[in-house]
Amino acid sequence: MYQRQGKAAYKADLSNTLLLMDELGNPEEGLKCIHVAGTNGKGSTSHMLASVLQHSGYKVGLYTSPHLKDFRERIKIDGEMIPKDYVVGFVNEYKSFFEANALSFFEMTVGLALDYFRNETVDIAVIEVGMGGRLDSTNVVTPEVSVITNIGLDHTAFLGTTLEEIAVEKAGIIKQGVPVVIGETQEETEYVFQQIAEQQLAPITFTENVAVGRFETDLLGVYQQKNMRTALTAIKVLTDLGWSVSTEAIRDGLNSVISTTGLLGRWQILGEGPRIICDTAHNREGLELVLGQLKRQVFEKLFVVLGVVNDKDLDRVLSLFPRNAEYFFCKPDIPRGMDNEILKDAALGYGLKGEVYKSVIHALEAAKAKAGERDLIFVGGSTFTVAEVL
Question: Higher-confidence residue: 336 or 361?
């Protein structure tokens, strides 16, 4: 599966997904949903939307990826993970079909999610794109609203090497006549979205042009303000379509995203004295925001537990990390994990100094042993590094 193996497991084609939808009796048809794409923030935005809709009294499906601790985190209804029995039953029923058609892990998982949402008759589902948009397996749905959070240079091996090329792939979720919300206006991508929305006769809204009111969220990262604005704009578009969402539901939903949906790993505080913070940001655009917030924290010494995957463009990310920190280099426990010695050598070229450790947990324990009460430990570099400390 892509989560563990990387590029070799990726399938940029919808034919298998369409075959699966047919086999399942087309659970995507008639499903009311919000479809969320973007380079960064799509997971947080999806959880915010789900929380607000739950507080509005709707039965809400939520499909996201990747998971951190449990595969079932990917598929939830009203914050509760899909039952193990449902997953096992689905695989048993369709195993021969999966094998005969060589379906990917992600294709199977999308089928499972849509089948579950249909059978549980959700009022609305929030569906997060896995990668890109145009050829992503989730792109068989026809949503109430499409959302594109932002565009950055990530997954360039699949999506293109320029912001414009990547924007075209993300804009593939824009459907005929379906409103689309663009979370971040960028000079290089604005005309791409305008042009494709016009071709699809899809009303387009850029969040910066919308007055959304003042709200707060329990998600602590400063970058969540952008995601919240995107979610609020999408909710406004949804209410214009006739969905009932009160100001109270918005306030309560945004203030309880973590407890309502179970979101993990976004500027999450794991401990105090020393303060331990983890964040799943893993590309340049995401890390710029997170490390910018990190530099504004008050501490005596900074310790960074760092692990990445082996397809990471180190030149784009290592230059962002502070030099005034001690580094604890480690390898996430997946086949895609980058060797800790390779990471250490590359980091040294950017003035980042530290030692290697045989696991993420060993690295964190070593950092905790060195850190005083007024120090700060940051754990990050990859979703998979963060997953191991939760």
Answer: 361
Residues 121-140, mean pLDDT to the nearest whole number: 94
Q: Which of 261, 286, 313 is the last residue of a domain?
A: 261
81 near 145, Cβ under 8 Å?
no
By C-alpha distance, which of 287, 350, 358 is closest to 324? 350
Per the structure, the complete domain to which residue 351 belongs is given by 268-387
Looking up tokens 């042993």 gives 369
**254 and 278 within one domain:** no
**Least confident interval from 123-132, 250-259, 362-371:** 123-132
Handedness of CA 161, 63, 111, 18 (dihedral sign): negative
The CA-CA-CA angle for residues 89, 95, 99, to 5°, reads: 165
pTM (global) more than 0.70: yes
Give which of 306, 285, 332 is closest to 68, Cα–Cα: 332
Is the pLDDT score of 61 beyond 50? yes
Residues 29, 140, single domain; the answer is yes
At residue 152 the predicted structure's pLDDT band, cuts being 50, 70 and 90, is confident
- 123: three-class secondary structure by DSSP: coil
**3-state SS assignment for residue 109:** helix
Rounded CA gap, 369 and 346, in Å?
A: 25
DSSP assignment letter at 303: E
| Cα–Cα–Cα angle for 277, 218, 153, rounded to 5 degrees | 65
Tally of domains within the chain: 2
For the chain, what percentages of helix, strand and coil (3-state, to nearest 5) are there? 45, 15, 40
- Alpha-carbon distances, residue 241 vs 118, 143, 199, 236 (angstroms): 22, 12, 21, 9
